[in-house]
Amino acid sequence: GSLEITGMLRSDSASGVQALPPVMEDFLKFAAAYKVKFGKQLRGSGYRTYSSQVEVRMLRAGPGHYCGQGSERLHATGRKIGKAATPGTSNHGWGAAIDLNRSDWTGGQGNSSPEFRWLNKFSADYNFVFNVTNEHWHITWKNIKTVLPGMRAPGVAWNSSGRDDPNITLV
Protein backbone atom coordinates (compact mmCIF):
# COMPACT_ATOMS: atom_id res chain seq x y z
CA GLY A 1 0.00 0.00 0.00
CA SER A 2 2.97 2.35 -0.34
CA LEU A 3 3.94 1.70 -3.95
CA GLU A 4 3.01 5.19 -5.09
CA ILE A 5 6.28 6.54 -3.65
CA THR A 6 8.45 3.89 -5.32
CA GLY A 7 7.82 4.74 -8.95
CA MET A 8 6.90 1.08 -9.50
CA LEU A 9 3.35 1.75 -10.69
CA ARG A 10 2.08 2.29 -14.21
CA SER A 11 -1.13 4.16 -15.00
CA ASP A 12 -3.47 3.94 -17.96
CA SER A 13 -5.67 6.99 -18.43
CA ALA A 14 -8.10 5.24 -20.82
CA SER A 15 -9.03 2.51 -18.34
CA GLY A 16 -8.30 4.33 -15.08
CA VAL A 17 -6.21 1.37 -13.89
CA GLN A 18 -2.97 1.75 -11.95
CA ALA A 19 -0.88 -1.41 -11.42
CA LEU A 20 2.59 -2.92 -11.48
CA PRO A 21 4.11 -2.84 -15.00
CA PRO A 22 3.71 -6.58 -15.81
CA VAL A 23 0.13 -6.50 -14.48
CA MET A 24 -0.62 -3.45 -16.60
CA GLU A 25 0.92 -5.08 -19.67
CA ASP A 26 -1.41 -8.07 -19.36
CA PHE A 27 -4.39 -5.89 -18.49
CA LEU A 28 -3.91 -3.69 -21.56
CA LYS A 29 -3.89 -6.78 -23.78
CA PHE A 30 -7.05 -8.04 -22.04
CA ALA A 31 -8.69 -4.61 -22.39
CA ALA A 32 -7.78 -4.46 -26.10
CA ALA A 33 -9.41 -7.85 -26.72
CA TYR A 34 -12.47 -6.72 -24.74
CA LYS A 35 -12.70 -3.58 -26.87
CA VAL A 36 -12.56 -5.63 -30.08
CA LYS A 37 -15.31 -7.91 -28.77
CA PHE A 38 -17.65 -5.34 -27.19
CA GLY A 39 -16.65 -2.05 -28.82
CA LYS A 40 -16.09 -0.33 -25.49
CA GLN A 41 -13.27 0.39 -23.09
CA LEU A 42 -12.71 -1.97 -20.16
CA ARG A 43 -12.32 0.32 -17.15
CA GLY A 44 -11.53 -0.15 -13.51
CA SER A 45 -9.26 0.63 -10.62
CA GLY A 46 -6.24 -1.26 -9.43
CA TYR A 47 -3.71 -0.13 -6.87
CA ARG A 48 -4.96 1.04 -3.47
CA THR A 49 -2.91 2.93 -0.96
CA TYR A 50 -2.84 1.58 2.58
CA SER A 51 -5.17 4.36 3.73
CA SER A 52 -7.68 3.54 0.99
CA GLN A 53 -7.52 -0.14 1.99
CA VAL A 54 -8.39 0.93 5.56
CA GLU A 55 -11.25 3.06 4.22
CA VAL A 56 -12.67 0.19 2.13
CA ARG A 57 -12.36 -2.21 5.06
CA MET A 58 -14.02 0.15 7.53
CA LEU A 59 -16.98 0.68 5.20
CA ARG A 60 -17.76 -2.93 6.01
CA ALA A 61 -17.52 -2.54 9.78
CA GLY A 62 -20.65 -2.62 11.86
CA PRO A 63 -22.33 -4.21 14.86
CA GLY A 64 -20.87 -7.68 15.31
CA HIS A 65 -18.51 -7.13 12.37
CA TYR A 66 -15.65 -5.14 13.78
CA CYS A 67 -12.69 -4.08 11.67
CA GLY A 68 -14.65 -4.62 8.48
CA GLN A 69 -15.02 -8.38 8.40
CA GLY A 70 -18.07 -7.99 6.21
CA SER A 71 -21.70 -8.34 6.99
CA GLU A 72 -25.20 -8.65 5.70
CA ARG A 73 -25.66 -4.91 6.20
CA LEU A 74 -26.92 -3.00 3.18
CA HIS A 75 -25.26 -0.09 1.43
CA ALA A 76 -27.39 2.98 0.69
CA THR A 77 -28.00 1.45 -2.76
CA GLY A 78 -29.64 -1.58 -1.12
CA ARG A 79 -26.80 -3.94 -2.02
CA LYS A 80 -25.09 -6.10 0.58
CA ILE A 81 -21.84 -4.78 1.96
CA GLY A 82 -19.36 -7.61 1.61
CA LYS A 83 -15.96 -8.33 3.03
CA ALA A 84 -12.66 -6.61 2.45
CA ALA A 85 -9.12 -7.84 2.96
CA THR A 86 -7.21 -6.81 6.03
CA PRO A 87 -5.31 -3.64 5.08
CA GLY A 88 -1.78 -4.50 4.07
CA THR A 89 -2.76 -7.94 2.76
CA SER A 90 -4.88 -6.91 -0.23
CA ASN A 91 -3.56 -7.64 -3.71
CA HIS A 92 -4.79 -4.13 -4.55
CA GLY A 93 -2.04 -2.83 -2.26
CA TRP A 94 0.52 -4.75 -4.30
CA GLY A 95 -0.80 -3.35 -7.59
CA ALA A 96 -1.86 -6.85 -8.66
CA ALA A 97 -5.67 -6.75 -8.44
CA ILE A 98 -8.21 -4.76 -10.42
CA ASP A 99 -11.83 -3.97 -9.68
CA LEU A 100 -13.59 -3.68 -13.02
CA ASN A 101 -16.13 -0.96 -13.64
CA ARG A 102 -19.38 -2.73 -14.49
CA SER A 103 -21.40 0.35 -15.43
CA ASP A 104 -21.07 -0.47 -19.15
CA TRP A 105 -22.03 -4.12 -18.72
CA THR A 106 -25.46 -5.36 -19.69
CA GLY A 107 -27.60 -3.92 -16.90
CA GLY A 108 -28.54 -5.90 -13.84
CA GLN A 109 -27.13 -9.21 -14.97
CA GLY A 110 -23.93 -9.25 -12.89
CA ASN A 111 -22.11 -12.52 -13.38
CA SER A 112 -24.69 -13.57 -15.98
CA SER A 113 -23.94 -10.62 -18.26
CA PRO A 114 -22.35 -11.31 -21.64
CA GLU A 115 -19.40 -9.14 -20.56
CA PHE A 116 -18.70 -11.10 -17.37
CA ARG A 117 -19.13 -14.44 -19.12
CA TRP A 118 -16.61 -13.39 -21.79
CA LEU A 119 -14.17 -11.94 -19.25
CA ASN A 120 -14.46 -15.06 -17.09
CA LYS A 121 -13.84 -17.36 -20.05
CA PHE A 122 -10.77 -15.51 -21.33
CA SER A 123 -9.26 -14.01 -18.15
CA ALA A 124 -6.78 -16.87 -17.71
CA ASP A 125 -5.47 -16.25 -21.25
CA TYR A 126 -4.37 -12.82 -20.01
CA ASN A 127 -3.09 -14.06 -16.62
CA PHE A 128 -6.07 -12.98 -14.52
CA VAL A 129 -8.55 -14.89 -12.41
CA PHE A 130 -11.87 -13.97 -10.75
CA ASN A 131 -10.78 -15.49 -7.44
CA VAL A 132 -12.89 -13.63 -4.86
CA THR A 133 -16.21 -15.38 -4.29
CA ASN A 134 -19.23 -13.38 -5.45
CA GLU A 135 -17.11 -10.48 -6.72
CA HIS A 136 -17.72 -10.50 -10.46
CA TRP A 137 -15.78 -7.26 -10.71
CA HIS A 138 -12.52 -8.32 -9.00
CA ILE A 139 -9.69 -9.86 -11.01
CA THR A 140 -6.30 -10.82 -9.61
CA TRP A 141 -3.13 -11.21 -11.64
CA LYS A 142 -2.10 -14.87 -11.53
CA ASN A 143 1.65 -14.28 -11.86
CA ILE A 144 2.16 -12.26 -8.68
CA LYS A 145 4.86 -14.68 -7.48
CA THR A 146 7.05 -13.80 -10.48
CA VAL A 147 7.53 -10.23 -9.23
CA LEU A 148 6.88 -10.69 -5.52
CA PRO A 149 8.39 -13.99 -4.39
CA GLY A 150 6.69 -15.36 -1.32
CA MET A 151 3.26 -14.07 -2.31
CA ARG A 152 0.50 -16.60 -2.58
CA ALA A 153 -0.77 -17.09 -6.12
CA PRO A 154 -4.51 -16.52 -6.46
CA GLY A 155 -6.75 -19.57 -6.53
CA VAL A 156 -9.18 -20.78 -9.12
CA ALA A 157 -12.13 -18.86 -10.49
CA TRP A 158 -15.10 -18.82 -8.11
CA ASN A 159 -17.61 -18.94 -10.95
CA SER A 160 -17.78 -21.05 -14.10
CA SER A 161 -20.20 -18.77 -15.97
CA GLY A 162 -19.22 -18.75 -19.63
CA ARG A 163 -16.05 -20.79 -19.19
CA ASP A 164 -17.29 -23.84 -21.09
CA ASP A 165 -19.68 -22.07 -23.44
CA PRO A 166 -18.57 -22.77 -27.04
CA ASN A 167 -20.73 -19.86 -28.24
CA ILE A 168 -18.52 -17.34 -26.45
CA THR A 169 -15.69 -16.48 -28.78
CA LEU A 170 -12.68 -14.25 -28.36
CA VAL A 171 -13.80 -11.93 -31.18
* Helix content class: 10-25%
Mean pLDDT: 86
Number of helices: 4
Distance, first to last CA: 36 Å
Number of strands: 6
Broad shape: globular
Order of helices and strands: EEHEHEHEEH
Give a short account of the largest sheet.
Answer: 4 strands, antiparallel
Can you give a write-up of this model?
With 171 residues, this protein is of the alpha+beta class. Helices cover 24% and strands 9% of the residues. Strands 3-4-6-5 form a four-stranded antiparallel β-sheet, with helices on one face. Strand 5 and strand 6 (138-141) form a beta hairpin. The radius of gyration is 16 Å and the shape is globular.
What is the strand and helix layout of this fold?
Elements: E1 10-11, E2 18-19, H1 21-38, E3 44-45, H2 50-59, E4 97-100, H3 114-122, E5 128-129, E6 138-141, H4 144-147
Antiparallel strand pairs: 1-2, 3-4, 4-6, 5-6
In short:
The protein is α+β, with helices and mostly antiparallel strands and 171 residues long. The chain contains 4 helices and 6 strands; from the N terminus they run ββαβαβαββα.
